[in-house]
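Lab notebook, bench 4. We co-purified these components, and the gel suggests they stay together. Before we commit to crystallization screens, I want a quick structural picture of the whole thing.
Request: model the full complex, all chains together.
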Amino acid sequence: MAIDKNMQILIVDDYKTMLRIVRNLLKQLGFENVDEATDGSAALQKLREKSYGLVISDWNMEPMTGLQLLREVRSDDELKEMPFIMVTAESKSENVVAAKEAGVSNYIVKPFNAETLKSKISSVLGDF
Amino acid sequence: MIGAQARAQLESCLALLRDRRDAAAGRREIAEIVRDVLNSLQGDISARDIRLCEELESLAQYIQEAKNEIAALRPDEISQQHIPSATDELDAIVAATEEATGTILDCTETVEEVAKGLDQENAKKLEDAVTRVYEACNFQDITGQRITKVVKTLKHIEERVNFVVSALGHEPANGAERKPGKAGEQAAPAQDDAALLNGPQLPDNAFSQEDIDALLAD
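Here is the predicted assembly.
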């Protein structure tokens, strides 16, 4: 299945620099419709107001972390099927296990490169 | 054996000491109390009791010497000057790298726009270079998180120093009340998940992307 590059993608990170980097890398991959949020609660509000095809979220944010956002998404009947990629510096095995148990679609450890981002999006959404 | 009257006198003195522990009774005060106790014993004191009193006096002297040594280290300076100064410097590093990264991204986005007007071969070369710059700019986020970990450690040291100073009868330094700067701001941990907020790991401790992929595939 080919990826719909017109889909809305929500990126969530409390570092504006990271939002900008991910947005630019997504743009290079052909995704122009990218929205941003700076923590889990702001992201959750956007997800409930608008239709998105993918969430790419950091973990360590306040007041709502990426893991909490993931759990909220998976427990919401309207959002539970949402593809969700965690992009984080949290690289301990217990973090990956916790994210997996919460239902993460894929997991990228920072610092990452463009090829990793592309391959993880592809594994979640289909071929480019 | 100590008689009932002497015992009552001793207990009274110990109660006084306990009540005054926050005020950190000095060696002289403790010695005076011990002397009063000795005077009140009126002959019914044993060799064992004398050894106990000597130990008490020795302990009081040891506490006083420790207080003098710690005072000489000027622990207030650690929490009032050294640690705030270090955290300010670290905040400045985060701010400077953030600003520099912003400038790098501004320039890179300009290059990316200009590349669109070039022939396909050169445009591809520039696009690849631009991608590598974006990838390299990941460092700013990682740097910020590492510095936050260091600031958190410094704050912990500051708290312990203040605890020691307080236990020895000094007021904690005002630095204990100092709010952390930007780099010291921590995400409010989500109760049970707090143990999962470890930040970036050193290379030897970190799971690689390949390790993570394998774990997810299990």
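The two ends of chain B are 73 Å apart (CA to CA). Worth comparing against the SEC data before the next meeting. Residues 4-72 of chain B form one domain.
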